[in-house]
Design brief:
By secondary structure, the chain is α/β, with parallel strands linked by helices. The chain has eight helices and 26 strands. Helix 1 packs parallel to helix 7. The C terminus is likely disordered.
Length: 400
Protein backbone atom coordinates (compact mmCIF):
# COMPACT_ATOMS: atom_id res chain seq x y z
CA UNK A 1 0.00 0.00 0.00
CA UNK A 2 1.44 3.34 -1.10
CA UNK A 3 -1.16 5.85 0.12
CA UNK A 4 -3.52 5.65 3.11
CA UNK A 5 -6.21 8.32 3.43
CA UNK A 6 -8.06 8.93 6.69
CA UNK A 7 -11.29 10.92 6.41
CA UNK A 8 -11.87 12.48 9.81
CA UNK A 9 -9.37 14.35 11.97
CA UNK A 10 -10.69 13.66 15.47
CA UNK A 11 -9.73 10.97 18.00
CA UNK A 12 -10.73 8.01 15.80
CA UNK A 13 -8.85 9.38 12.80
CA UNK A 14 -5.77 10.21 14.84
CA UNK A 15 -5.87 6.74 16.44
CA UNK A 16 -5.98 5.19 12.98
CA UNK A 17 -3.00 7.26 11.84
CA UNK A 18 -1.00 6.31 14.92
CA UNK A 19 -1.87 2.65 14.43
CA UNK A 20 -0.73 2.75 10.80
CA UNK A 21 2.69 4.11 11.72
CA UNK A 22 3.04 1.77 14.70
CA UNK A 23 2.27 -1.19 12.45
CA UNK A 24 5.03 -0.19 10.09
CA UNK A 25 3.22 1.70 7.32
CA UNK A 26 5.83 3.92 5.66
CA UNK A 27 3.81 5.23 2.73
CA UNK A 28 1.99 8.50 2.21
CA UNK A 29 -0.51 9.28 4.98
CA UNK A 30 -3.23 11.86 4.29
CA UNK A 31 -5.58 13.05 7.06
CA UNK A 32 -8.70 14.99 6.01
CA UNK A 33 -10.77 17.07 8.45
CA UNK A 34 -13.67 19.47 8.04
CA UNK A 35 -12.68 21.56 11.07
CA UNK A 36 -9.66 23.85 10.96
CA UNK A 37 -8.33 22.52 14.28
CA UNK A 38 -5.99 19.58 14.68
CA UNK A 39 -7.50 16.64 16.61
CA UNK A 40 -8.77 17.63 20.06
CA UNK A 41 -10.43 15.93 23.03
CA UNK A 42 -14.22 16.30 23.03
CA UNK A 43 -15.42 15.00 26.44
CA UNK A 44 -14.20 18.11 28.33
CA UNK A 45 -16.25 20.38 26.04
CA UNK A 46 -19.32 19.91 28.27
CA UNK A 47 -17.35 20.02 31.51
CA UNK A 48 -13.95 21.55 32.27
CA UNK A 49 -13.64 23.56 29.05
CA UNK A 50 -17.16 24.92 29.43
CA UNK A 51 -16.34 25.83 33.04
CA UNK A 52 -13.21 27.69 31.91
CA UNK A 53 -10.88 25.44 33.91
CA UNK A 54 -8.86 24.44 30.84
CA UNK A 55 -8.02 26.06 27.51
CA UNK A 56 -8.12 24.84 23.91
CA UNK A 57 -4.42 24.05 24.18
CA UNK A 58 -5.21 21.55 26.92
CA UNK A 59 -7.55 19.68 24.56
CA UNK A 60 -4.92 18.94 21.90
CA UNK A 61 -4.56 15.17 21.43
CA UNK A 62 -1.17 15.12 19.73
CA UNK A 63 1.88 15.13 21.95
CA UNK A 64 4.44 17.90 21.58
CA UNK A 65 7.04 15.56 20.06
CA UNK A 66 4.65 13.59 17.84
CA UNK A 67 5.22 13.60 14.09
CA UNK A 68 3.14 11.21 12.04
CA UNK A 69 4.70 12.53 8.82
CA UNK A 70 1.21 13.07 7.50
CA UNK A 71 -0.29 15.50 5.03
CA UNK A 72 -3.08 17.33 6.84
CA UNK A 73 -5.96 18.64 4.72
CA UNK A 74 -8.02 20.60 7.25
CA UNK A 75 -10.93 22.99 6.97
CA UNK A 76 -12.63 21.29 4.03
CA UNK A 77 -15.26 18.58 4.15
CA UNK A 78 -15.14 15.37 2.14
CA UNK A 79 -18.08 15.49 -0.26
CA UNK A 80 -17.76 12.50 -2.52
CA UNK A 81 -16.14 9.07 -2.62
CA UNK A 82 -15.51 7.03 -5.75
CA UNK A 83 -14.94 3.63 -4.18
CA UNK A 84 -13.87 2.06 -7.50
CA UNK A 85 -10.85 4.35 -7.79
CA UNK A 86 -10.71 5.19 -4.07
CA UNK A 87 -10.82 8.88 -4.85
CA UNK A 88 -12.08 11.36 -2.25
CA UNK A 89 -13.28 14.77 -3.43
CA UNK A 90 -13.28 17.67 -0.99
CA UNK A 91 -15.57 20.67 -0.83
CA UNK A 92 -12.81 23.03 -1.96
CA UNK A 93 -12.26 21.03 -5.14
CA UNK A 94 -9.17 19.11 -4.07
CA UNK A 95 -9.10 15.35 -4.46
CA UNK A 96 -7.15 12.52 -2.87
CA UNK A 97 -6.58 9.12 -4.46
CA UNK A 98 -5.51 6.34 -2.13
CA UNK A 99 -4.90 2.60 -1.97
CA UNK A 100 -6.63 2.27 1.40
CA UNK A 101 -9.20 4.46 3.14
CA UNK A 102 -10.25 4.82 6.78
CA UNK A 103 -13.67 6.45 7.19
CA UNK A 104 -13.76 8.29 10.54
CA UNK A 105 -16.19 11.12 9.84
CA UNK A 106 -17.92 10.95 13.22
CA UNK A 107 -21.40 12.30 13.85
CA UNK A 108 -23.19 15.64 14.05
CA UNK A 109 -25.49 16.86 16.78
CA UNK A 110 -29.19 16.58 16.02
CA UNK A 111 -31.35 19.68 16.25
CA UNK A 112 -35.08 20.23 16.57
CA UNK A 113 -37.23 21.44 13.66
CA UNK A 114 -38.03 25.09 14.03
CA UNK A 115 -35.06 25.95 16.25
CA UNK A 116 -32.42 26.64 13.62
CA UNK A 117 -31.36 30.24 13.21
CA UNK A 118 -31.96 31.44 16.77
CA UNK A 119 -28.91 33.10 18.28
CA UNK A 120 -29.37 31.63 21.76
CA UNK A 121 -30.02 27.98 20.78
CA UNK A 122 -27.01 25.67 20.94
CA UNK A 123 -25.90 22.13 20.33
CA UNK A 124 -22.62 20.84 21.74
CA UNK A 125 -20.35 18.78 19.54
CA UNK A 126 -17.38 20.92 18.58
CA UNK A 127 -14.90 23.33 20.12
CA UNK A 128 -16.72 26.20 18.41
CA UNK A 129 -20.02 25.02 19.95
CA UNK A 130 -18.53 25.00 23.44
CA UNK A 131 -16.96 28.42 23.04
CA UNK A 132 -20.26 29.92 21.91
CA UNK A 133 -22.26 28.31 24.72
CA UNK A 134 -19.75 29.36 27.39
CA UNK A 135 -20.56 33.01 26.68
CA UNK A 136 -24.22 32.36 27.64
CA UNK A 137 -23.55 30.68 30.98
CA UNK A 138 -23.74 33.57 33.41
CA UNK A 139 -25.07 33.44 36.98
CA UNK A 140 -28.78 34.10 37.36
CA UNK A 141 -29.72 33.28 33.78
CA UNK A 142 -32.30 30.62 32.88
CA UNK A 143 -31.10 27.68 30.82
CA UNK A 144 -33.42 25.12 29.25
CA UNK A 145 -31.77 21.83 28.26
CA UNK A 146 -33.75 19.68 25.85
CA UNK A 147 -32.67 16.07 26.26
CA UNK A 148 -31.45 14.37 29.46
CA UNK A 149 -28.80 12.17 27.84
CA UNK A 150 -25.17 12.43 28.88
CA UNK A 151 -24.43 15.67 27.00
CA UNK A 152 -27.59 17.33 28.29
CA UNK A 153 -26.95 16.14 31.84
CA UNK A 154 -23.33 17.31 31.82
CA UNK A 155 -24.27 20.73 30.46
CA UNK A 156 -26.99 21.02 33.11
CA UNK A 157 -24.48 20.11 35.82
CA UNK A 158 -21.94 22.63 34.53
CA UNK A 159 -24.51 25.41 34.20
CA UNK A 160 -25.86 24.80 37.70
CA UNK A 161 -22.35 24.99 39.06
CA UNK A 162 -21.97 28.37 37.37
CA UNK A 163 -25.07 29.72 39.10
CA UNK A 164 -27.75 29.37 36.43
CA UNK A 165 -31.35 28.30 36.92
CA UNK A 166 -31.61 25.08 34.92
CA UNK A 167 -34.57 23.08 33.63
CA UNK A 168 -34.03 19.79 31.78
CA UNK A 169 -36.79 18.47 29.51
CA UNK A 170 -36.79 14.81 28.46
CA UNK A 171 -39.33 13.18 26.13
CA UNK A 172 -38.84 9.69 27.55
CA UNK A 173 -40.34 8.70 30.92
CA UNK A 174 -36.90 7.66 32.18
CA UNK A 175 -33.70 9.42 31.08
CA UNK A 176 -30.75 7.26 29.98
CA UNK A 177 -32.90 4.12 29.87
CA UNK A 178 -31.27 3.17 26.55
CA UNK A 179 -27.63 2.98 27.66
CA UNK A 180 -28.27 2.24 31.36
CA UNK A 181 -31.64 0.49 31.50
CA UNK A 182 -34.78 1.75 33.26
CA UNK A 183 -33.68 1.12 36.85
CA UNK A 184 -30.23 2.68 36.68
CA UNK A 185 -31.36 5.43 34.32
CA UNK A 186 -33.78 6.51 37.04
CA UNK A 187 -31.07 6.29 39.70
CA UNK A 188 -28.61 8.48 37.79
CA UNK A 189 -31.23 11.03 36.74
CA UNK A 190 -32.08 11.72 40.41
CA UNK A 191 -28.81 13.66 40.55
CA UNK A 192 -30.61 16.55 38.85
CA UNK A 193 -33.23 16.99 41.57
CA UNK A 194 -30.68 16.38 44.33
CA UNK A 195 -28.64 19.31 42.98
CA UNK A 196 -31.48 21.75 42.44
CA UNK A 197 -32.06 21.21 38.72
CA UNK A 198 -35.65 20.65 37.63
CA UNK A 199 -36.10 17.55 35.46
CA UNK A 200 -39.34 17.22 33.48
CA UNK A 201 -39.81 13.79 31.87
CA UNK A 202 -42.33 12.13 29.60
CA UNK A 203 -43.37 15.22 27.67
CA UNK A 204 -42.63 16.76 24.30
CA UNK A 205 -42.41 20.38 23.24
CA UNK A 206 -45.44 22.00 21.68
CA UNK A 207 -43.98 25.36 20.62
CA UNK A 208 -41.29 27.96 21.16
CA UNK A 209 -41.70 31.65 21.97
CA UNK A 210 -39.22 34.06 20.47
CA UNK A 211 -38.41 37.74 20.24
CA UNK A 212 -35.78 39.58 18.18
CA UNK A 213 -34.19 36.35 16.99
CA UNK A 214 -33.96 34.81 20.46
CA UNK A 215 -35.97 31.98 22.00
CA UNK A 216 -37.61 33.30 25.17
CA UNK A 217 -39.26 30.09 26.33
CA UNK A 218 -40.77 26.75 25.43
CA UNK A 219 -44.31 25.48 25.82
CA UNK A 220 -44.53 21.81 26.69
CA UNK A 221 -47.09 19.35 25.36
CA UNK A 222 -48.61 19.48 28.85
CA UNK A 223 -49.29 23.18 28.38
CA UNK A 224 -46.69 24.40 30.83
CA UNK A 225 -44.50 27.33 29.78
CA UNK A 226 -40.81 27.32 30.70
CA UNK A 227 -38.98 30.64 30.25
CA UNK A 228 -35.46 30.62 28.85
CA UNK A 229 -32.52 32.94 28.30
CA UNK A 230 -30.71 30.19 26.41
CA UNK A 231 -31.52 26.71 25.10
CA UNK A 232 -29.26 23.69 24.65
CA UNK A 233 -30.46 20.83 22.45
CA UNK A 234 -28.93 17.51 23.47
CA UNK A 235 -30.98 14.89 21.65
CA UNK A 236 -28.22 12.73 20.26
CA UNK A 237 -26.15 12.70 17.10
CA UNK A 238 -26.49 11.45 13.54
CA UNK A 239 -23.57 9.70 11.81
CA UNK A 240 -21.93 11.75 9.06
CA UNK A 241 -22.57 9.42 6.14
CA UNK A 242 -24.72 11.42 3.71
CA UNK A 243 -21.63 12.25 1.64
CA UNK A 244 -21.22 8.52 0.89
CA UNK A 245 -24.51 8.26 -0.99
CA UNK A 246 -23.85 6.59 -4.34
CA UNK A 247 -20.32 5.59 -3.35
CA UNK A 248 -21.07 1.88 -3.10
CA UNK A 249 -20.21 1.78 0.60
CA UNK A 250 -23.11 0.11 2.40
CA UNK A 251 -25.01 2.29 4.88
CA UNK A 252 -27.53 1.02 7.43
CA UNK A 253 -31.03 2.13 6.44
CA UNK A 254 -32.36 1.76 10.00
CA UNK A 255 -31.04 1.84 13.57
CA UNK A 256 -28.23 1.98 14.50
CA UNK A 257 -27.44 3.86 11.27
CA UNK A 258 -23.92 4.46 10.08
CA UNK A 259 -21.52 2.53 7.86
CA UNK A 260 -22.07 -1.22 8.04
CA UNK A 261 -18.87 -3.08 8.96
CA UNK A 262 -17.85 -6.55 9.97
CA UNK A 263 -16.28 -7.30 13.36
CA UNK A 264 -12.97 -5.81 12.18
CA UNK A 265 -14.34 -2.56 10.78
CA UNK A 266 -14.23 -3.69 7.14
CA UNK A 267 -16.92 -2.29 4.87
CA UNK A 268 -18.38 -4.09 1.86
CA UNK A 269 -15.74 -2.38 -0.31
CA UNK A 270 -12.28 -4.00 -0.13
CA UNK A 271 -9.64 -1.57 1.08
CA UNK A 272 -12.10 0.65 2.97
CA UNK A 273 -12.69 0.44 6.73
CA UNK A 274 -14.74 2.59 9.09
CA UNK A 275 -14.15 3.55 12.72
CA UNK A 276 -15.56 5.86 15.37
CA UNK A 277 -19.07 7.29 15.66
CA UNK A 278 -19.90 6.81 11.97
CA UNK A 279 -19.20 3.06 12.00
CA UNK A 280 -21.65 0.26 12.85
CA UNK A 281 -19.49 -2.74 13.70
CA UNK A 282 -20.84 -6.26 13.86
CA UNK A 283 -20.91 -7.86 17.29
CA UNK A 284 -20.37 -11.52 16.51
CA UNK A 285 -21.79 -12.68 19.84
CA UNK A 286 -25.17 -11.01 19.34
CA UNK A 287 -24.99 -10.98 15.51
CA UNK A 288 -26.07 -7.33 15.55
CA UNK A 289 -24.47 -4.12 14.38
CA UNK A 290 -23.71 -1.41 16.94
CA UNK A 291 -22.36 2.11 16.78
CA UNK A 292 -20.15 2.73 19.81
CA UNK A 293 -20.19 6.51 20.29
CA UNK A 294 -17.67 6.71 23.09
CA UNK A 295 -14.09 7.84 23.61
CA UNK A 296 -12.56 4.43 24.26
CA UNK A 297 -14.13 2.95 21.14
CA UNK A 298 -12.56 5.72 19.06
CA UNK A 299 -9.22 5.04 20.71
CA UNK A 300 -9.14 1.22 20.64
CA UNK A 301 -10.97 0.04 17.53
CA UNK A 302 -9.01 1.92 14.83
CA UNK A 303 -5.91 -0.22 15.55
CA UNK A 304 -7.91 -3.38 14.80
CA UNK A 305 -9.34 -1.95 11.58
CA UNK A 306 -6.02 -0.60 10.32
CA UNK A 307 -4.24 -3.88 11.08
CA UNK A 308 -6.69 -5.71 8.82
CA UNK A 309 -6.46 -3.02 6.18
CA UNK A 310 -2.66 -3.20 5.98
CA UNK A 311 -2.57 -6.99 6.21
CA UNK A 312 -5.78 -8.81 5.22
CA UNK A 313 -4.30 -12.03 6.62
CA UNK A 314 -3.74 -10.52 10.06
CA UNK A 315 -5.40 -12.50 12.84
CA UNK A 316 -8.68 -11.04 14.04
CA UNK A 317 -8.82 -9.80 17.63
CA UNK A 318 -11.98 -9.34 19.69
CA UNK A 319 -12.96 -5.86 20.87
CA UNK A 320 -13.56 -4.86 24.46
CA UNK A 321 -17.04 -4.16 25.77
CA UNK A 322 -18.36 -0.63 25.27
CA UNK A 323 -17.18 1.66 28.05
CA UNK A 324 -18.06 5.26 28.86
CA UNK A 325 -18.03 7.68 31.74
CA UNK A 326 -19.83 10.87 32.69
CA UNK A 327 -19.12 13.52 35.33
CA UNK A 328 -22.28 15.06 36.77
CA UNK A 329 -22.62 17.20 39.91
CA UNK A 330 -19.33 15.91 41.31
CA UNK A 331 -20.21 12.26 40.73
CA UNK A 332 -18.12 10.15 38.34
CA UNK A 333 -20.37 7.63 36.62
CA UNK A 334 -18.68 4.74 34.79
CA UNK A 335 -20.36 2.04 32.74
CA UNK A 336 -19.14 -0.98 30.79
CA UNK A 337 -21.09 -3.66 28.95
CA UNK A 338 -24.52 -3.94 27.34
CA UNK A 339 -27.45 -3.08 29.58
CA UNK A 340 -29.97 -4.35 27.03
CA UNK A 341 -28.75 -7.90 27.56
CA UNK A 342 -29.52 -7.91 31.30
CA UNK A 343 -32.61 -9.20 33.06
CA UNK A 344 -31.75 -7.81 36.51
CA UNK A 345 -29.42 -5.40 38.32
CA UNK A 346 -27.83 -6.12 41.68
CA UNK A 347 -26.08 -3.61 43.94
CA UNK A 348 -22.73 -4.96 45.09
CA UNK A 349 -21.73 -2.04 47.28
CA UNK A 350 -23.30 1.24 48.42
CA UNK A 351 -26.75 2.68 47.86
CA UNK A 352 -28.03 5.15 45.25
CA UNK A 353 -28.92 7.75 47.88
CA UNK A 354 -25.25 8.17 48.79
CA UNK A 355 -24.20 8.64 45.14
CA UNK A 356 -21.43 6.11 45.75
CA UNK A 357 -22.23 2.58 44.62
CA UNK A 358 -21.44 -0.23 42.24
CA UNK A 359 -24.11 -2.37 40.59
CA UNK A 360 -23.77 -5.35 38.27
CA UNK A 361 -26.15 -6.25 35.46
CA UNK A 362 -26.90 -9.96 35.09
CA UNK A 363 -28.45 -12.18 32.47
CA UNK A 364 -29.35 -15.22 34.50
CA UNK A 365 -26.21 -15.83 36.55
CA UNK A 366 -23.84 -14.23 34.04
CA UNK A 367 -22.66 -10.63 34.56
CA UNK A 368 -23.05 -8.62 31.33
CA UNK A 369 -22.48 -5.01 32.45
CA UNK A 370 -21.39 -2.93 35.41
CA UNK A 371 -22.05 0.63 36.56
CA UNK A 372 -20.20 2.56 39.24
CA UNK A 373 -20.70 5.93 40.87
CA UNK A 374 -17.59 7.28 42.59
CA UNK A 375 -16.22 3.73 42.78
CA UNK A 376 -13.33 3.82 40.25
CA UNK A 377 -11.16 1.10 41.81
CA UNK A 378 -13.91 -1.50 42.21
CA UNK A 379 -15.39 -0.58 38.84
CA UNK A 380 -12.04 -1.11 37.10
CA UNK A 381 -11.79 -4.58 38.63
CA UNK A 382 -15.24 -5.54 37.39
CA UNK A 383 -14.64 -4.02 33.96
CA UNK A 384 -11.44 -6.03 33.59
CA UNK A 385 -13.27 -9.24 34.49
CA UNK A 386 -16.12 -8.55 32.07
CA UNK A 387 -13.71 -7.80 29.23
CA UNK A 388 -11.77 -11.00 29.89
CA UNK A 389 -14.97 -13.03 29.60
CA UNK A 390 -16.21 -11.07 26.57
CA UNK A 391 -12.99 -11.36 24.57
CA UNK A 392 -12.53 -15.08 25.24
CA UNK A 393 -12.83 -17.14 22.02
CA UNK A 394 -16.35 -18.13 21.07
CA UNK A 395 -17.08 -21.78 21.70
CA UNK A 396 -17.07 -23.91 18.56
CA UNK A 397 -20.51 -25.24 17.60
CA UNK A 398 -21.17 -28.79 18.69
CA UNK A 399 -20.86 -31.42 15.98
CA UNK A 400 -24.00 -33.44 15.36
Amino acid sequence: MQTLAIVGASLAGLSAARAARTLGFEGKLVIIGDEAERPYDRPPLSKDFLLGRITAEDLVLETSDEDLQAEWLLGSRAENLDSATKTITLGDGRSVEADGIVLATGASARNLPGLSGYANVYTLRTLADSRALAAELRPGRRLVVIGAGFIGAEVASTAKGLGLEVTVIEAQPTPLSGPLGEEMGAVVSRLHEHNGVELICGTGIDSFDSEAGLVTGVTLASGRFVPADAVVVGIGAAPNVAWLEGSGVEIADSAPGGILCDARGRTNVPGIVAVGDCAAWLDERSDRHHRVEHWTGAQERPALAVAGLLDPDAAARPVNLPYFWSDQYGVKIQFAGNAREADRVQFEIGVPEDHSFLAVYYRGEDPVAVIGANQPRLFTKWRRQLNAAHTAPLAAPALS
